[in-house]
Structures are given as structure tokens and as C-alpha cells.
Design brief:
Keywords: Membrane, Transmembrane, Transmembrane helix. It holds the Pfam family DUF4097. It comes from Thermosporothrix hazakensis. This is Putative adhesin. The protein is an alpha/beta fold. It has a domain at about 105-125 and about 185-365. It is built from five helices and 27 strands. The protein has helices at about 5-10, 10-25, 30-35, 50-60, 70-85, and strands spanning about 95-105, 115-120, 125, 130-145, 150-155, 160-170, 175-185, 190-195, 200, 210, 215-225, 230, 235-245, 245-250, 255-260, 260, 265-270, 275-280, 285-290, 295-300, 305-310, 315-320, 325-330, 335-340, 345, 350-360, 365. Strands 1, 3, 4, 7, 9, 11, 13, 15, 16, 18, 20, 22, 24 and 27 form a 14-stranded mixed sheet that branches. The chain has a 13-stranded mixed sheet with strand order 5-6-2-8-10-12-14-17-19-21-26-23-25, with no helix packed on it. A hairpin with a 2-residue loop joins strand 5 and strand 6. The protein is flat. It starts with a helix and ends with a strand. The model is unreliable at about 1-25 and about 30-50 (pLDDT under 50).
């Protein structure tokens, strides 16, 4: 170090030396023992020599703990459990029994009337013999504990057949339901309520009242007599080759119809999905309404009828024949109006009255598509 550097750094050098001296102030006996390896032969040349004070400090520190991953395993088990319970019969499913019942119908009386109240499960109705009603009930239980149980009660009063299922012992870890396969004559009135499944009817002619709280509804090849109703709280509705007066409503799904003829005072409503009709016919007074989807109609609107199409969150598209006759009122607050007929009044003589509106989309009237 030069003389000039010594002039600037003498105090700092002194402090470092003093500090080093303070760090090395230990008992000479401990220093000798440290240097000699604490009396262990050869220890003075092996490994790291740890000063007794440093050794004591290290011994007082808590041992390092490895990261525990047990909570990941618990989380995985919880997810699998919820998946199993949500899957219902897809997981841990057991068939607890199959029941078959036959009911003979009385000739010369009113048409058969089937009443079904299913606590949980699917209901399928099809056409069979003309003089009897056959019911097959398949009972399931599912979940981790086999405590849930389903019972089915049957009752006949004349040509009225009642089927009621009850579900007992349901808990967080288990459940049960009943699937019903029912065969009826071609002409029959049918009332069905199920609280957790699908409803499927085909080739049934009569008055229908179908309700499910958590599934889809399918109706095909049926002719309705009287005002019929279809309602689901959480599924889709499919109509195929069906005609008559019908009230259709879903609170959370789509409505699809093909080769359907609605007449009288009919209505089709969805609270959160699209509504579509293909190759269909409207007669009388028909209202189509959705709160959150598109409306697509392709077919014929008979003259002298009143037809309303409204959506609060989508577009309305009407595909009509070239020879259509109508007087239309087309309104939208958030889109455009496109009318390929070139006028809102088309044809001569009797006309169909059309009201189409949207709160957030386009109105399209197309010709011959």
C-alpha cells in the first residue's frame, strides 16, 4: 500500500484487524483441542473441522423438513369421488333387480291412460300390443355405499295404470334410480314426471304431458290429440314427425324439430338455447321465443295464421317458399333486417301474419331455401 493510500485507509485497516481479533478470541485449550481433532487419532486430517461453538449453533437449528405432497393425494381422491358421484350409473353401478308387470286392458272402455311418477331415472315408452300394458323396471344403485334403494309401486284402476318409484337412503356417497321400459297400445294418453332422467316416446297417439327435472325429452312419430305439454328444466327437446297442439319449454337447452306440424295455440320456448325447425308446418297461432339463442325456421306458414318469433340475444332466420303470402312486421334493436322478398307484404288473398323481432341480432327472411 502506498503512503497516500495509507493516509486514507488507516482507520479502516485498523478496524478490520480489530474485528478479526475479536472473532478469534477463544480459550487456548479449545483451540488446541480443535487443532488436534478432539483426541481422535487422525481426525486432525479428516473432513471439516467444526469449531465447538459453531457445532453447538448448528445442533440447535431445527432439521430441514421435506415438502409433503400428501395434500395432492387427498385432492385427487376428492376429485375422483365427485366425478364418480356425478357420473351416477357410470361409476360403481349395480343392478339391484329387474321387475316385469303386465296389465290387461278392458275392452269397450276409454283409451288407456298411463301415469308415471319416477323418483329418478329414464322413462322409455313405445307401442306394442293393443290389449295390454307391459312395464319393465330396472333398479340401479351406485356410489361408495350400498345403502340407497329404489322401490316401484303399481296400481290399475280400469284402464288407468299408475307407476310410482321411490328412492330411499340417498346420501352424499350414494344414490339410486329406476329405468322404466313401457309398452302401450298405439292410442294412449301418457303423463310422465321424472326427477332425474330422460324421457323418450315414439309412435304414441294421444294426449301427452311430459316433464323431467334434469334430462332430455325426445318425441317421434306421434299424433297428438288435445293440448299436450313437454317441459324440461335442464335438457334438450327433440321433435320428429309429430303433429298437433303442443306447448314446449326448456329452461336450459335447445329445441330441435324436423317434419313437425304445430297447430291451434302452440308455443315453443327456451330460456337459454337455440330453436330450430326444419321441413315443418305452422297453422293457427304459434309463438316461438328464446331468451338467449337463435331461431331458425324452414318450412311453411299457413295463411290465416298468426306467428310470432322473438329472441332476446340472437338472430331470427325464416326460410319460406317462394309462393308464400304474408304480412310481416320485422324489428331489431341491435342488428339488420334482410328481406329477400323485397316487401313486408307479399302475395294476394289471405295471408299469414308474421311478427319477428330481436333485441340483439339480425332478422333474415329468405326465399325458397
Amino acid at each position: 500500500m502506498s503512503n497516500q493510500e495509507a493516509m486514507f485507509y488507516p482507520q479502516e485497516t485498523s478496524r478490520r484487524q480489530e474485528g478479526m481479533g475479536e472473532q478469534r478470541q477463544i480459550d487456548p485449550r479449545e483451540e488446541a483441542a480443535y487443532a488436534e481433532g478432539y483426541g481422535v487419532p487422525g481426525a486432525e486430517n479428516i473432513g471439516e473441522k467444526i469449531h465447538p461453538v459453531e457445532e453447538q449453533r448448528r445442533s440447535q437449528q431445527p432439521p430441514r423438513q421435506r415438502r409433503k405432497h400428501g395434500w395432492w393425494i387427498v385432492l385427487l381422491l376428492v376429485v375422483l369421488l365427485f366425478s364418480a358421484l356425478a357420473g351416477g350409473k357410470a361409476f360403481f353401478s349395480r343392478v339391484n333387480g329387474v321387475e316385469n308387470r303386465d296389465f290387461t286392458l278392458q275392452a269397450g272402455q276409454q283409451a288407456p291412460h298411463l301415469i308415471v311418477n319416477n323418483g329418478a331415472g329414464d322413462v322409455h315408452v313405445k307401442v306394442g300390443n293393443t290389449d295390454s300394458v307391459h312395464i319393465q323396471a330396472t333398479k340401479y344403485s351406485f356410489g361408495l355405499l350400498p345403502t340407497a334403494n329404489a322401490t316401484v309401486n303399481y296400481q290399475q284402476n280400469g284402464n288407468t295404470i299408475e307407476v310410482t318409484s321411490n328412492i330411499d337412503g340417498v346420501s352424499f356417497l350414494n344414490g339410486a334410480d329406476v329405468d322404466l321400459e313401457i309398452t302401450v297400445p298405439a292410442v294412449a294418453d301418457v303423463n310422465i314426471v321424472t326427477y332425474g332422467g330422460d324421457i323418450d316416446l315414439s309412435n304414441v297417439n294421444g294426449k301427452l304431458d311430459l316433464k323431467t327435472m334434469g334430462g332430455d325429452v325426445s318425441l317421434s312419430n306421434s299424433r297428438l290429440s288435445g293440448a299436450s305439454q313437454i317441459h324440461t328444466s335442464g335438457g334438450d327437446i327433440t321433435l320428429t314427425q309429430t303433429n298437433g297442439v303442443l306447448q314446449v319449454e326448456t329452461n336450459g337447452g335447445t329445441i330441435r324439430a324436423e317434419n313437425v306440424a304445430l297447430s291451434g295455440n302452440s308455443s315453443v320456448r327456451s330460456s337459454g338455447g337455440d330453436i330450430s325447425f326444419k321441413d315443418s308446418l305452422f297453422q293457427g297461432t304459434v309463438e316461438v321465443n328464446t331468451s338467449g339463442g337463435d331461431i331458425d325456421f324452414q318450412g311453411t306458414l299457413a295463411v290465416n295464421g298468426d306467428y310470432t318469433f322473438h329472441t332476446s340475444g340472437g338472430k331470427v332466420t325464416l326460410n319460406l317458399p317462394e309462393n308464400s303470402a304474408f304480412a310481416a312486421q320485422l324489428e331489431t334493436t341491435g342488428g339488420e333486417v334482410n328481406n329477400e322478398f323485397g316487401s313486408n307484404v307479399v302475395g294476394t288473398g289471405p295471408k299469414a301474419t308474421i311478427k319477428a323481432s330481436s333485441s340483439g341480432g339480425d332478422i333474415n327472411v329468405r326465399k325458397g331455401r
